[in-house]
Write a structure and sequence with these properties.
This protein is of the alpha/beta class. The protein has a single domain, classed as Arginase, Chain A, CATH 3.40.800.20. The chain contains 10 helices and 8 strands. The protein has helices spanning about 25-35, 55, 65-70, 75-80, 90-110, 135-145, 165-170, 205-225, 250-265, 285-300; strands at about 5-10, 45-50, 115, 155-160, 175-185, 195-200, 230, 270-275. The chain has an 8-stranded parallel beta sheet, sandwiched between helices. Strand 1, helix 1 (about 25-35) and strand 2 (about 45-50) form a beta-alpha-beta unit. Helix 1 (about 25-35) packs across helix 10, helix 5 (about 90-110) packs across helix 6 (about 135-145) and helix 8 (about 205-225) packs parallel to helix 9 (about 250-265). The longest helix is centred in the first third of the chain and has 24 residues, at about 90-110.
Length: about 300
């Protein structure tokens, strides 16, 4: 069956952040506009993300934590770890991110690929959020796939510059899940939770060494023989990223994407895209890098 790409967005939910806040809130709407303006995606391929219901969120999070995010009783310490002030929008933004991830997954199951213009919130743990992550979209949908016997062996290819400690804390005891993380060795989080395979890279790694390390990681994923892939396509390894430090070029990031996406397409493994981090200054460079991943998707015939 030929691919019918559906991509989900949640920029209609916006966190009320102050102008000086370091999180680039505007990147979501800017990316959607860029993808349309540059005809990388067509309007009929974009869909608003639905809100994930309580039962879905509870696949990876405690009921008490979910309720506290919704009603504002979330502990001050957790709010500080998350890095956003609590607001009513927080619950809806975070749960629509998960809803979009589930819809992208359903599309991938049917057509081979699906996208979410949010997500990759890999620092969210079972009973708390941190690092700008509130609910863990990939962990929730991984549990959904396994619980419903839709897939048996799931790989998470996490190429955000920050190690996915939340993914690992929720999923690393499950032998049906393989988590590959390529990340900055000295970057956040400073206390890592071991993944199935962690490849920690020094500052200023650059394209060539990064891509060699990715080849090692992808071979390990292939040896696991997954039947579903979540691709956390964070672009914060970009040289211009304020939090990255790995010094990848736009071309290096596109080659990274090409390796991952070509593997999935060649092996006919359904794959869904999660946005991940990006903090370049100006933020338009991050937007361009995200959009380039979708350029690679198109170049491969999806």
């Amino acid at each position: 069956m030929s691919a019918q790409l559906k991509v989900y967005y949640s920029d209609h939910y916006t966190l009320p952040l102050t102008p000086e806040h370091r999180f680039p809130n505007e990147k979501y709407s800017l990316l959607k506009k860029y993808l349309l303006d540059n005809e990388i995606l067509k309007p009929h391929e974009l869909f608003p993300s639905p809100i994930a219901d309580f039962d879905l969120l509870q696949l990876a999070h405690s009921a008490d934590y979910i309720r506290s995010v919704k009603d504002g009783s979330v502990a001050k310490e957790i709010i500080q770890r998350i890095g956003f002030p609590w607001s009513e929008a927080m619950y809806y933004k975070a749960s629509s991110t998960v809803g979009g991830a589930l819809e992208a997954c359903k599309n991938a199951l049917q057509y081979g690929i699906g996208g979410n213009l949010a997500g990759g919130t890999h620092h969210a743990h079972f009973d708390r959020g941190e690092g700008y992550c509130i609910f863990n979209d990939i962990a929730v949908v991984t549990h959904y796939l396994l619980k419903n016997n839709l897939k048996k062996r799931i790989a998470i290819i996490d190429l955000d510059v920050h190690q996915g400690n939340g993914n690992s804390s929720i999923l690393n005891q499950n032998s049906d899940v393989f988590i590959l993380s390529l990340h900055g060795e000295k970057n956040y989080p400073f206390k890592k939770v071991p993944s199935t395979l962690d490849i920690a890279l020094p500052d200023h790694t650059g394209d060539d060494e990064y891509l060699k390390a990715l080849d090692i990681g992808l071979q390990a994923v292939q040896d696991f023989s997954p039947d579903y892939i979540f691709y956390q396509m964070g672009v914060d390894p970009l040289k211009e990223d304020a939090l990255g430090k790995l010094d990848l070029s736009f071309e290096g990031l596109q080659e990274r994407d090409r390796k991952v996406l070509s593997y999935a397409k060649t092996k006919q493994i359904p794959l869904s895209l999660a946005l991940g981090g990006g903090y370049a200054k100006p933020i338009e460079l991050t937007v361009k890098a995200y959009a380039n991943t979708y350029r690679v998707v198109r170049s491969l015939g999806w």
